[in-house]
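Hmm, how's this folded?
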Amino acid sequence: MLKTIGLFLLTNIAVIAVASIAMSLFGVGSVLQANGVDLNYDSLFMFALIFGFAGSFVSLAMSKFMAKHMTGAQVITQPRNADEQWLVETVYALADKAGIGHPEVAIYDSPAPNAFATGMNKNNAMVAVSTGLLRNMTKNEIAAVLGHEVSHVANGDMVTMAVLQGVLNTFVIFFARIAGHFVDRVILKNDEGHGIGYFVASFIFEIIFGILASMIAMWFSRHREFHADNGGAYLAGKQNMIAALRRLGSMEPDELPEQLAAFGINDKPSKIGELFASHPPIEERIAKLEATPESELKVA
């Protein structure tokens, strides 16, 4: 618990520091015009853009560090046994076939089967698997799961999601403050500076717009999973990928931290509906793969 709080505070301090430096460099001033009444839309948009992207890219830059500390993943620097040697060699071989640099290979302790990929770019990534996955799946199935994760890396999914999240954050902040300004000026009739109504309304609208933005991000995440399955089938064999998905569908997945859930091979169904699920149903993924000709299997 304390570790989670510490990481949360560290991330937010880094975001504020990066955003403050960027605002100083770009000369971003008040979000109000000189008359203290009207919005300065240029300044507001720059404010939203800087804070929107600072959060997503600081998280991306710290992704491997955060993943190791949140899951307890241990990077294999020197294989201790034949299984670890096979795991590292398999990831490296898949990475070579996908045309990317060798990711770090890690194992984290969890009885449930899962795996995830993270990292700032294709040639500086990490692929981690749970002990439950290693115990409950065959080597061919594990290779397919690893292929799925290597495909996430090769497809640049971590960077793409960071950019998408940055864009969504920007518009959430921008429009929430416009709505807050409207409430403050038109409904509460405050005609000087910004009163408490602006800040309360902006906060409420950020939650509302944030929910809508989350639906867009999760739609893209589900779409991206089909591509990663396709890439895993190309790298490790279509039947192996289908078998791995079937095996995963028969077991209860673990719940990865929110920052990593979108890059796992499997995730628990969303409690608030499919629109907020990071992964499509396993049955849908299998059907999609079965309908895909071998000639259309590829990475990226």
About this structure: DSSP finds eleven helices and four strands in the chain. The CA atoms of residues 53 and 166 lie 4 Å apart.
